[in-house]
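Why show two proteins at once? Because comparison is the fastest way to build intuition. When a single record is shown, students tend to memorize it. When two are placed side by side, the eye starts asking what differs. So, the first record is below.
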Amino acid sequence: MERIAWQERIAVDPAVHHGEVCIKGTRIPVRILLGSLADGMTYDDIATEYPQLSKDDIRAVLAYAAEVLHEESLLPLGA
């Protein structure tokens, strides 16, 4: 399966939700969705809570997190 292009689904807008990283076209923060997944919620659970989201939106959250962690791993520890 090909990794989803998160840039098409995730954005930062200073005028939306205090500039937090959110799913485009919503005020739903990526950190909330990532935390929900970490807490054991499934795609279907999240879709029930946020019916405006697609499974691809949720996949984009994971792809975004993976890329952010990859970028951070390039920094020396303690930086």
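Second record. Ask yourself what differs from the first in the token line.
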Amino acid sequence: MVPVVRPIGGPGPLGLIIPPAPEEILPGHVGDTNGSTTGDTLGSTGTLSAFCSAAESAGAGALWAVDHLFWPRPTLECLTTLAVAATATRRTALGSCVLQLPLRRPAAVAKQAAALQLLSGGRFVLGVGVGSHPGEYEMAGVDFADRGALADAGIAALRRAWESAGDPGLPYRQEPAAPPVPVWVGGSSAAARRRAAGADGWVPMFLAAPDYARGLDALRAETAAAGRDPKQVTAAVVVVVRVGVRPDAARRGAEWLSALYSIPPRAFERHLVAGTAAACAEQLQGYFESGADHVAVMVAADHALDQFAELVGAFPATAGRAAVGHRPDLVEMGV
């Protein structure tokens, strides 16, 4: 049986996805290869740190980084971004949402994840998935048709790597040992739910609240059928939000998503929560009522902090499954 794992500093109800690479995070002045620098020697690190610290102060119960090795727009590397976030925060959970495991060597991911878990004081969640862009797989030299099998093999390889720590019978092992790393599975397909039923969490995207509720019911049934307590699998979801006055907010949010994904804006109309902060908070509450433990908010704008802070402020103290912020019921790390 797979042990249930909770990060020591578990996610609060509302998390925030770090923007992939807005203008203010890209470096304005960088050092050259000879070691000389001009301007701010922190480059974008200081800006990213300030963003993460401000997000924690605004009430983010988790900070999530997206993962793309190849993409039409600039995107910071996922695990490196989270290493910076770990140094800039003290309480928030940190996670990948989601890392495309088939594009990476599982042993290397296991080592990176364990290091992040150790250095963050147990706040890291490894979200994994298969992605949905054949062109990215082609650029990475990986067969898109093999992504499901590679994900299954990769998750098993992660666990083998972590289990090697402390085994004196192995001449080569991954050490130092870290607190257990929760593995959450992204995706809304039946295959993704099957993987999530054997993991520590499920975090799909682009699902309306009623569709999420049905998917969660299916996941719980599959988890129970596998002989596990459904409560062992954290129920999370990514929701895209644009705070503003409708219909302008909906239009601007869809245009932002269109530029990010290179897909026509109309494709996002039914997947975008848009409106005043109070209206968006009410719609997000629907996900908690459907059974979500955590909602990761992706703000459909380059400048995410102000909109996220408005959203947090619109939730009453009793919103979600607990007050927005720290989740005392997830503090413990259970096995």
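One difference worth noting in the second protein: The longest strand covers residues 234-243.
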